Amino acid sequence: MSSRILSGETAKTAAPMLWRPAGASPAHVGPVAGASPPEGDAAALQARLSRLESESAAREVQARKAGFEEGQAAARRNLEGPCREALARAAEAVAELARLRQRLRREA
């Protein structure tokens, strides 16, 4: 970025720049020192804060429950295939043993 130093009459026409202090942002502007809200506003704000905190806690419990249920469903889906395969192999083995038993009885 190129820049130029203004002097003389041109320097007088330049608008001064207002800079924020380092680390400050407009979103973090706090209340005016020494000022307090009117008493009615403080009570309303406190009631709203309490309500929002309880709603937040309820949302947290609900989200935790939903996440737990999603995790259980995912685990069930992941284990369902291998369990079916193992059960199919076990059923085959039992059927093979039954056939072998009948054959051995006939041969004996």
Keywords:
2 helices, mainly alpha, 108 residues, 0% strand
Layout of secondary structure:
Layout lengths: L8 H5 L25 H69 L1
Task: Give an account of the 3D structure.
- The protein has helices spanning 9-13, 39-107.
- The protein is elongated and about 120 Å long.
- The mean pLDDT is 83.
- It is mainly alpha-helical and 108 residues long.
Structural class: mainly alpha
Helical content band: 55-70%
Please write the string of helix (H) and strand (E) elements.
HH
Low-pLDDT runs = none
**Shape label:** elongated
Number of helices: 2
Rg from C-alpha positions? Answer: 38 Å
End-to-end gap: 100 Å
The proportion of residues in beta strands is: under 5%
Number-wise, the strands total 0
**Major β-sheet profile:** none
Average pLDDT taken over every residue = 83
Quick description:
The chain has about 110 residues and is mostly helical. The chain has helices at about 10-15, 40-105. The longest helix has about 70 residues, at about 40-105.
